[in-house]
Amino acid sequence: MSETETTRTTTCVIAGGGPAGAMLGLMLARAGVDVTLLEKHADFLRDFRGDTIHPSTLQVLDELGLAEAFHRLPHHKAYTFTAMTDRGEVRLADLRKLPGKYRYIAFVPQWEFLNMITAEARKYPNFHLLMNAPVTDLVRRDGAIRGVRYRGEDGQEHEIRAELTVAADGRGSDVRRAAGLEPKEFGAPMDVVWFRLPREAGDPDDPFLRLSAGYIMVAINRTTYWQLAYVIPKGGFGKLRARGAGELRRTVKGLLPFLDGRVSGLRDFDEVGVLQVAVNRLSRWHLPGLLFIGDAAHAMSPIFGVGINLAVHDAVAAANIVGPALLRGEAPEELLARVRRRRWAPTMITQAVQRVVQRLVIGRALKGRRAPAPPDVSRLPVISGLARRFIGLGVLPEHVRLPLSKTGSQHVDR
Ligand SMILES: Cc1cc2nc3c(=O)[nH]c(=O)nc-3n(C[C@H](O)[C@H](O)[C@H](O)COP(=O)(O)OP(=O)(O)OC[C@H]3O[C@@H](n4cnc5c(N)ncnc54)[C@H](O)[C@@H]3O)c2cc1C
Question: Residues 248, 325: one domain?
Fold first, then answer.
């Protein structure tokens, strides 16, 4: 990367160090592309975010030679998913019968995953990571996007010129706004309230879903504590807050009696996060010199916890398709269009299934007339096989095809 006082050049600049941007950065760096990743925060520490690494993404990590390093991170393997209803337990999915090496979902705090991916990328001298560097605008030249403007740690505006700019800056994408593109919104009947409570010996081990008339809660085992996701009707957070933490404590106790005695840890709403659920997607994922991937191209519903996996697989597809041209210093728009064509079906089909579940299960359950009664999939082999593949492998899983460069393999530990 060459540098002047405020302008640098690189081959590919990526806005956003989430799962999509970090994975694309790593794959391009190991292939030998000069790549610069800009992340607006000072670190990757982000709580109440996607924690689920599905078998298809574990396979990608394996193909990158990172499976061992990944499994050294603090993680919990979930092989089965169960719903606890008022009438007892129902098995929703069993991943143990999946084909392939990885037959579980690994729950890993997202910051651990991002630290690992970026630490690996930093071993390549052609990878440059700028933290605390929010992208503020695009650089336009001759009818194409040719880089970004960002605010540096010194508080000044800087410019990075690049052959390809990738927007991986999430569902509130600043780059999308700067490019004047707007996603089509599909709506969702719910928001999700997040909080944590301590775990104790004797608690259930695997994550589970708690269903009751008018109530849906997801419990994720994070070893020393439970991360709890309480699903509420869309826009209902203000009302919940007005009713006070006492009411939330009573709800949790009623739904999960084993947490009685620990709900006092939920003192006020300062310790509670809220996810405003959105399902949307851009119809156009590219402009000359600019590509959108991950949530910036399509925000997913949290149903099935597939947001990270779609983001990672977008990145793998983008690296496979555009990487060889970037090595020659080019990023023709026809290749950017190919990335969108490749990832359109997985995005559209996954969102379609999520919208059906939102409408038929979540929307109805939240109205609270009747306790939802999911079928026991172990008695429905065809449906359970489809559900297993859909959740575990997703639609059109990607594989690493962009080779490690001969010079890239001389990576340095720093
Ligand atoms: C509360 C919550 C729970 C979730 N639960 C799950 C789950 O269990 N499983 C799952 O798979 N998914 C889950 N998701 C969704 C998942 O987190 C996202 O789908 C996934 O992280 C998308 O990855 P991404 O890289 O496209 O975007 P993001 O993860 O949103 O990353 C975007 C990155 O860009 C940075 N950024 C933003 N603006 C700028 C800018 N102007 N300049 C530079 N950087 C910028 C952000 O700081 C961020 O690091 C959840 C999301 C939330 C909010």
Answer: no
